[in-house]
Amino acid sequence: MRTNRLEAFSDGVLAIVITIMVLELRVPEGHDLSDLVHTTGLGLLIYLLSFIYVGIYWNAHHHMFHLVRRVSGSVLWANLALLFCLSLVPFTTTWVSESRFERIPVVIYGLNLLGAALAYLVLQWVIIWQQGLESPLREAVGTDRKGKLSLAFDVAGIVAALAIGGRVGVWIALACFVFIVVMWVVPDRRIARVVREHEAPA
Prior knowledge:
202 residues
């Protein structure tokens, strides 16, 4: 099976995820900037973080499937697992916003991000397994240090929120999640390089 239907379905799901997130933002009751900050300020910040997270996955997914010609049933299921994790982002984002960054909602948000990161790695591994030892995706990701570092920071953020009392643990957790965004906001150049090499005329 070719990848076009999988990519179209994934693009549609991610577009809906982003739309749902923005619909969850609360409209200010007044008409001043202070009303926006008081009513929506924290919600806008966590929405922005989640929006960039989803955007990073969309970008990475788009680049990855440039190196895939056909997909198997296992790839379809692994892709659905990733979409499931990302479809939960509006829920966990809203909970963090409405709780005003309480510890347990931030922990669940972190678990959601960790689940998405693991699901993406599983999808990547399944594609490489399908393509074999000469997989262009395997060549592109190499040892995948950035992917493993992302998992480490997700876990560190969750542990910090659970283990450190008060707001300090929560802010450390959020700092870990923001660091991951900063690390991945530039598209993965490894895959882009391999795509160019494979598209170049022999």
